[in-house]
Amino acid sequence: MSATAQPTRMRRRERLHQTLSALGVYVLVAVLFVVGCMISSKFLTQDNLLNLLRDVMILGIVCVGAAFITYSRHYVDLSIPGIMALSGIVTVSVLPYGLWTAIAAGMLTGMAVGTLNGFAVGYLKLNPIIWTLAMMSVLFGVIRIVYGGKQVYPDAGTAVGRAFLELYHVEVFGLMPLPFVLFVAIAFAADFVLRRTGYGLKLKLTGAAYDTARMTGIEVRRIVALAFVISSALSALAGILLTSFNKVGAHYIGKDYDFQAVTAVVVGGMTLAGGRGTMAGVIGGVMVIALLNKVMSLVRIGEFVIGDFQKNLVIGAVFILVVGVNSFSRRKSGLDDA
Questions:
Q1: How far is Cα 326 from Cα 321, in angstroms, rounded to an integer?
Q2: Which of 292, 295, 280, 299 is nearest to 316 (CA)?
Q3: pLDDT given at position 63
Q4: Which of 101, 118, 193, 269 has its CA 20 to 30 A from that of 233?
């Protein structure tokens, strides 16, 4: 085989692997939807489908940001729950100064954390798992110290307080929920960035071959740092929307979103090896996790119901299975061992 033919064959094999991953995840979406219809008559009710849509919207926004980190080969940002909680609480606290000022404050809070994460991981090359796990503990500590562990409620007696409480429920053109519109717009924008921009191409090379990217002159530290900022900004947005929905700013806002996000991203075909995967696959992964949670919520065997612990156990098993299968298939196909 010629030197030029081998890279071409590898690229074709890679495209085929990505296509099959994306198709496979949507087949799984269809299967879970059918299973949900079969196990409960409540699955197709309006309330259940609206709750499912809510889960997809919020988790989807988080996952789009988390995908940038996984794409860069830095696995996941474990400080996502802390960012969501702190951004929501800060937004509620700043509401007396105006709705847009409060939202800006919440977003800037999340981006500030992302900047710290990006500097530590991108420039100082600290372990992303250890650093972001420590950052999550710091953020929860800040919430406990500053707010005394208390929940923060918007003042529904003021116009700005009512506006914030209605933020999640706003309908664009009277048809589509604002969070859904934001999710779709963000997903399309992220897909364009990853596939069509210089930053996306540099991020792909950085994730797939860090040392090669560095030697070609790419400022890999800045590329990685920006991925963390993007993830944190979207986590902050999701936290603000979730706070509006729950009508309270609290430390538990964002609980488990870090693990669900990385699971959805990996299920969607974006490998932990970095530089591989598609945003379409990630969205499919989001739908799989949302449907899996919803189906488990509807399972009832006598007095037994599936709680949060059992859900996390199942999602953890799915994550291990997908990573194992993906690693095996890539080794068999000669792509890599990640």
A1: 8
A2: 292
A3: 96
A4: 269
